Amino acid sequence: MVDAPSGISGILGDLSKYSFRLDRIILTHGHFDHVLGIAEALKVFPAAELMIHPGDLEELGDKLISKAKQLSDGMKFKAAGSIELSVIHTPGHTPGCCCFLMNTGSGGFLFTGDTVFHGTCGRTDLDGGSNTAMFASLQKIKQLPPETVLLTGHQYSRKFSGTLAEEIASNDAMKASSLDSLEQLP
Ligand SMILES: [Fe+2]
Description:
With 186 residues, the chain is of the alpha/beta class. The protein has 2 domains: 1-71, no CATH class; 73-186, Metallo-beta-lactamase, Chain A, CATH 3.60.15. It is built from 8 helices and 11 strands. The protein has helices at 9-17, 32-35, 38-44, 62-65, 131-142, 164-170, 172-175, 179-183, and strands at residues 24-26, 49-52, 69-70, 76-80, 83-89, 98-105, 107-113, 116-117, 120-121, 149-152, 162-163. The chain has a 6-stranded mixed β-sheet with strand order 4-5-6-7-10-11. A 3-stranded parallel β-sheet has the order 1-2-3, with no helix packed on it. It has a two-stranded antiparallel sheet with strand order 8-9. The longest helix has 12 residues, at 131-142. The structure holds fe (ii) ion. Fe (ii) ion binds at residues 29, 31, 93, 114.
């Protein structure tokens, strides 16, 4: 499971109903709207591993901090069957933001959390945010295969999904060629 917001009881119920097991909850970052469902998920699947980058660990609160394991850049998991998922540390929105690349063999999917949205990037004006780190993270994401499909943490535009190539062509934050130009965006 990538992120565990509130309101996931239906998903958890379906996993149980169809005899799936939740092995791992991996967090794109520690903001409340991505973590409020963790306790409920762990109640249904107590053996599930909880993973977050150390940069955001303190966001979890004492109870969950002791259970959490650390994500690091370049870490790889078997996601399901032969599908592999790799961790890309992309600070900027928060210090511990990560994106997860799911390699399906033909292209791939990138869970971007709050680092990239369709048409923009995550805000950097909250605690721990950094324009410098965000600019570097966006350059890192731009190196991925252009056919990679982006799955964003929120949907602020009418578009549901699109490729990295489309995003690089249309997203002002992705198009910014310098830190200065990123900082000048509204
Ligand atoms: Fe966030």
